[in-house]
Amino acid sequence: MDILMLSNGKIAGNEHVMGFASEAIVEQVKRTGARNWVLIPYAVIRSSHDDRVAMVQQTFDALGLDCHVSGLHQADDPVAALKAADGILVSGGNTWVLNKTLHDLGLVGPIRKAVLDSGVPYIGWSAGTNITCPTIRTTNDMPIITGAVLPSLNLVPFQINPHYLEAKVEGHNGETRDERIQEFLEVNKHEPVVGIPEGTWLHLHDGKLSYHCANGKDLKLFSYDSEPVYYSAHQDIQFLMEHSC
């Protein structure tokens, strides 16, 4: 396995999507030799899927990588396109739409098989990171569709909250992000939640999990009946892979 799970697509000062994790992406491409990448753009709602493919292609080009990005939405046979791909990219957007579309098209099994059995590298951000969890119950997105589906790819055995923000907005009297996650834990006591702020990512390589950041921000781990714990880049978080939801 070689999975990059980015909190978000862009941060201030980065011209290209995923630019803050450029070094990790270059290393992954060189390590795996992946050249033919397929982008899953189903989470994209407010712009075209074709534009998102072009955006990601620009990132690879800017990094000097000899890679070709195609959109899974353009494939006559999405399952065959996944089998033929050297790498899988999953764009951010609305997690509910993304996850339901993957289930509707019968793509959950083929993606898991490619990543877990064939070792096809995977890069996701935001919604693309949400779906690596056992379920998408810790997404920040609204369920803007009916018939929403919760189980997801289950590539990692814990829940992730991308775009994690430790803040209380002045004048806002609703729950903070921390309070929402604590509510999740009250109902799901045995399912820890990893909050990854903007500009950070998780990397799972051959079963070894690590945390990285482009801005010095720490990961925040939430567990039931315990105070949250912060982890900085390079600290050992491998114990999370031993968890069973």
From TrEMBL:
GO function terms (MF aspect): dipeptidase activity; serine-type peptidase activity
Keywords: Dipeptidase, Hydrolase, Protease, Serine protease
EC numbers: 3.4.13.21
UniProt GO BP: proteolysis
Transmembrane segments: none
Class of enzymatic activity (EC top level): hydrolase
Keyword Hydrolase included in the entry's annotation: yes
InterPro entries linked: Class_I_gatase-like (IPR029062), Peptidase_S51 (IPR005320)
Pfam families per UniProt: Peptidase_S51 (PF03575)
Entry's family note: Belongs to the peptidase S51 family.
Protein name as annotated: Dipeptidase PepE
Species in which this protein is naturally found: Photobacterium chitinilyticum
Lineage: Bacteria, Pseudomonadati, Pseudomonadota, Gammaproteobacteria, Vibrionales
Gene name for this UniProt entry: pepE
